[in-house]
TrEMBL record, chains A, D:
Responsible for channeling the electrons from the oxidation of dihydroorotate from the FMN redox center in the PyrD type B subunit to the ultimate electron acceptor NAD(+). Its cofactor is FAD; [2Fe-2S] cluster. It comes from the Bacteria. HAMAP family: DHODB_Fe_S_bind (MF_01211). This is Dihydroorotate dehydrogenase B (NAD(+)), electron transfer subunit. It comes from Yanshouia hominis.
From TrEMBL, chains B, C:
Catalyzes the conversion of dihydroorotate to orotate with NAD(+) as electron acceptor. This is Dihydroorotate dehydrogenase. Gene3D superfamilies: Aldolase class I. It comes from Yanshouia hominis. FMN binds at residues 20, 44-45, 98, 125, 163, 189, 215, 241-242, 263-264. Substrate binds at residues 44, 68-72, 125, 190-191.
Length: 261, 302, 302, 261
């Protein structure tokens, strides 16, 4: 039964600034990690050399190059933990647990909208890359302002079509990443990750149009692997009963129809 | 090297036990290691009926500690007996069922319900700070502790551990109350009630406003309380609170604990209990200790 | 920006006060900065007669915390009045005299002795965990708290703060007891009793066996207790426990404190109080707060 | 009155291993620091990048080169704090408070024994250097074994005479640093720093021979500058009354006749 990859130490191969204060970290990961990874999954990072930070930090897989055992993360230095993670030097190591979570499911969708907002743009890159193998993926990425845009070129490469939106209109569509798609034909599947108001809008839109839709949520986490029940989000079963699901293990990706935002 | 200890008549392979609420019912950990290697397994707190738990956010980090307010989310005792316990037994785990009730009667009923099962010990949590019985927390009153211990003791043939709250003025008195009520052992500490404020939103970080503090931050308090409890009673003491390493575990044994539980460390690292077990073994062998029982109560105080 | 606050009728320049026992009588700090910049100064705990204090070791570090067992070493109230107080007043400090007694009468005598001096407030420490009155710690019993508050209140015209122990089951009750006894305010928390063990010698690290835990490790507990105390009483609350930054200070103000004290941070850095004051000012200006009083009790709880 | 040097950040100019697992750290310090320093004083070091370690670590001034604003420390990685201090990289900074404490007083002594044991050897170097300007200093340094010896050459340079002793006889005199001096003429002053049993022996010897003697003590410390009263040692006043003095501010150097070990 002991089949999960225990925490391991990953070497930082390169670290460079992306747009918007984010940092791109390229890490060396073992084969088992690559084999188990799917878009929408995350890793749980120990804050390096900081035992006072007991909890790990969840960070989405932004990209993966299995041939080179390369994991790419996009990290926004938000508080002390992500700041320390971002200041790790090339050649240094970080302790990692993962890949964790359920990830997005393409099922048989042929057309996909991948909607990302802010830091939630990161996991969409890996999703675009993977899902583009068998579907037409339109990526719609929302940022606060032009300076916050990151990884645009990578999305250009990996998505069928790329739409950029900014809240202040300094680049691309003036408005949010969902509204930016209003003139586009409806897809078989919407996947989305970003701030809650954005997810709510996507959820409402998808339910209203009866579209398959998967939302990737964020929640404060303890263990990251399903044991502590601290990362809950409200879900509604068919019969209207409410439950708390675990974002780390039952998610972070949830069916738009089941999750209460 | 001998690592086994006898806890209230139950022989444990070793004194390392994952603490209630940080180990689920063991399933997630069995993906990382063979959980029968542990001395025992303390289950997530079980209540008579299923509980939804508190709304999120339920956890936050504090300096060298964490605050949690899970609010006893659990599937209820029947689901535990039907779905979780058989699996645990099949894994070869020695099971400590951690139970919580809202009244003395509920505790007694839980004990009775579990009496005929394959659990090894019952751990009676009189101290969860995240649920309230009539506004006040159960476990801070020695009288109530005694009553619960008595009622549970009468309702089951299993050995009974009473898990004590650290949110009391006198832990020795609390431990004695449990002993007087007939407990076979006490375990401590549960979490210290705490709070965190988000300076940006000016709101409490946790939806429940307060939560339970655990982790290395509380270790000095936990160690002191375990020492005082062990001095006060003649039944075994199971110690916990911020144990992150084998040396931490050894400190609790020296203070008088027969076994220890590891909570928050599991949240940092799924392998924590196994690592701590190996480190404890290493500490013993480095210090010429052939039997871990030599450590128990071995603190030298002039 | 307005930083001044009114504490029990005393106007403080700002809400930052060094905590008792971590600031001596201010002399060492005056070598680093002008101590009249502080809201007030809480003195080292003063007893009727000089006290030698505990044997060493008196301090050790714990994760994000420290344990101390100084044992109220001080020159006694007479030496304080003759040698320390005049100097403090000359520096322009607003002086909070922190006093400790072994009985209700001793507290009353101390208050009377200090009544005719230039101190601004009296802080009655009913909670020092490192001295014992007949085996049990004074400050954990609401009845005693009320009695001490009453006796002190009757013995002086100075505003009286009662400094509460966190080693209690119900801090709201303790705060109410102080209020009922006539206290003009409460201050909290004093240290949580803890312990550390040296794994090499298998002995307690501190000669006193137990000590008082302070620092960021206890902040969540302190913040919770201050919040509960502020909810429970209508007199001002002075908050402390692990305040290391201006944001930490702001959190205590939001929780309902009128002023805060800074203890352990002084041990890490002689400039701590001044830095915290500047950071608090910065936090206010960054958040459009023109008067620090806007923060007090400003926590949003649904 | 604000005349003490506030905590400052000192740059690590070089770091190299000494003998016995010790590390020599050379740090850049301001002029005021150099002006205020005297042998026997110490600095109080913040453990770098480790906020969970609230207390500073006291380390003796091992040497000082005021012309170059150079402070030399000898640090034994004993626990986590000193280990982190020793692993600081060249070019990095460490936050420092000091110089603190009273230091040794030569008074008018013309002949001095400087007795150091283990890590207590470190402050003797600075003392030898300074006191040799006006006195004949015999340094007697005790180590557990040959491999623990450090800074021998520096002592050769700075002391009038150097005696090495090892507990196991693997180098120099076989025995302790005091016994190693038994054939030497008695000095005007003994200064000593080292483990308590050594200090006790020195104290007894000095009192027995009616010699001026100053002992540098170690104690767990909080503030390091006299405010918290946690660093106490027992002292005896003339009238036989016992007190607790502050090792940090009243010491670390005490008259052998006044301190109770
Ligand atoms: C599934 C998932 C995927 C994520 N992917 C990314 C990503 O690819 N890139 C990225 O930059 N960020 C991502 N985040 C958010 C990231 O985890 C937080 O920004 C980070 O944990 C903040 O830590 P901190 O120490 O910097 O901030 P602090 O606010 O100091 O953290 C304090 C505590 O709160 C927790 N916390 C704070 N904010 C969040 C949050 N938004 N979500 C979860 N926990 C939080 C921290 O983990 C920590 O335990 C993701 C979050 C989740 C849940
Ligand atoms: C005046 C003075 C001068 C010193 N000079 C030197 C020197 O030049 N070189 C050197 O290597 N060491 C010196 N020491 C000892 C050094 O301070 C300790 O080895 C160090 O504090 C241990 O910290 P740690 O985190 O590595 O160990 P830990 O044992 O993890 O420390 C835990 C706590 O105990 C304290 N502590 C532990 N041992 C001692 C000790 N022996 N003295 C004081 N506090 C202690 C620590 O400061 C810390 O607060 C000196 C001590 C004093 C008092
Ligand atoms: C997330 C979490 C959930 C917990 N749930 C329970 C519980 O259900 N029942 C219980 O008795 N204790 C519970 N506890 C308390 C722990 O069992 C333990 O007493 C406490 O965390 C102190 O140990 P630690 O510092 O090693 O975590 C919980 C602790 C945490 C962190
Ligand atoms: C070294 C030390 C000595 C103390 N002495 C006293 C004292 O004499 N009287 C008192 O009321 N509190 C005393 N305290 C408690 C502090 O005033 C304060 O209540 C406590 O340390 C919590 O605040 P902090 O976490 O900021 O240190 C002492 C604390 C320390 C660390
Ligand atoms: S974080 Fe522990 S269950 Fe999700
Ligand atoms: S360490 Fe604070 S008085 Fe010496």
């Amino acid at each position: 039964m002991s089949n999960a990859l225990p925490p391991f130490s990953a070497k930082l191969l390169s670290s460079r600034p992306l747009g918007g204060g984010m940092r791109e970290l390229c890490l060396e990961v073992p084969d088992e990690f690559c084999r188990a990874s799917r878009p929408g999954m995350f890793v749980h990072l120990k804050v390096p050399d900081a035992p006072q930070h007991l909890l790990r930090r969840p960070i989405s897989i932004m990209d993966l190059e299995p041939e080179d055992n390369l994991l790419v993360l996009g990290v926004q230095p938000k508080g002390e933990g992500t700041r320390l993670i971002c200041s790790l030097r090339e050649g240094g190591c970080i302790e990692m647990l993962g890949p964790l979570g359920n990830g997005f499911s393409l099922n048989d969708a042929k057309t996909v909208w991948a909607i990302g907002g802010g830091v939630g743009v990161a996991p969409m890159l890996y999703a675009c890359r993977e899902f583009s193998k068998s579907a037409r993926v339109t990526a719609s990425l929302g940022f606060r302002t032009r300076d916050m845009i990151f990884s645009e070129r990578d999305f250009h490469e990996s998505a069928f079509r790329l739409v950029i939106a900014t809240d202040d209109g300094t680049a691309g569509f003036h408005g949010n990443a969902l509204a930016a798609l209003s003139s586009h034909p409806l897809p078989d599947l919407i996947i989305a990750c970003g701030p809650t108001p954005m997810l709510k809008a996507v959820q409402e839109f998808a339910l209203g149009h009866n579209l398959h839709c998967q939302l990737s949520l964020e929640q404060r986490m303890g263990c990251g692997y399903g044991a502590c029940l601290t990362c809950s989000c409200r879900t509604m079963s068919r019969d209207g009963e409410e439950h708390y699901a675990r974002v780390c293990a039952d998610g972070p990706v949830f069916d738009a129809g089941k999750v209460v935002l | 090297m001998r690592l086994s200890v006898n806890l209230c008549g139950v022989e444990l392979k070793n004194p390392i036990i994952p603490a209630s609420g940080t180990f689920g019912f063991g399933r997630e950990f069995s993906r990382y290691y063979d959980i029968s290697r542990l001395g025992a397994v303390a289950t997530k707190g079980i209540t008579p009926l299923p509980r939804l738990g508190n709304p999120p956010a339920r956890i936050t980090e504090t300096p060298s500690g964490i605050l949690n307010a899970v609010g006893l989310q659990n599937p209820g005792v029947d689901a535990f007996i039907e779905e979780e316990l058989p699996w645990l037994i099949q894994q070869g785990a020695t099971v400590i069922a951690n139970v919580s009730g809202n009244s003395v009667d509920e505790y007694a009923e839980l004990a009775e319900t579990l009496d005929s099962t394959d659990i090894a010990l019952l751990e009676v949590n009189v101290s969860c700070p995240n649920i309230h019985a009539g506004g006040c927390v159960f476990g801070s009153d020695p009288g109530t502790i005694r009553d619960v211990a008595k009622a549970v003791r009468a309702a089951t043939r299993k050995p009974v551990l009473v898990k004590l709250s650290p949110n009391v003025a006198d832990i020795a008195e609390a431990a004695k109350a449990a002993e007087e009520g007939g407990a076979d052992g006490v375990s401590l500490i549960n979490t210290l009630t705490g709070m965190a404020i988000d300076l940006k939103t000016r709101r409490p970080v946790l939806a429940n406003v307060t939560g339970g503090l655990s982790g290395p931050a509380v270790r000095p308090v936990a160690l002191r309380m375990c020492y005082q409890a062990a001095q006060a009673v003649s039944i075994p003491v199971v110690g916990m609170g911020g144990i992150m390493t084998g040396e931490d575990a050894a400190a609790f044994l020296l203070a008088g604990c027969t076994a220890v539980q590891v909570g928050t460390a599991n949240l940092s690292d799924p392998m924590a209990c196994i690592r701590i077990l190996e480190e404890l073994e290493h500490y013993c062998s480095q210090n010429g200790i052939a039997d871990v029982n030599e450590l128990i109560g071995g603190l030298i105080v002039e």
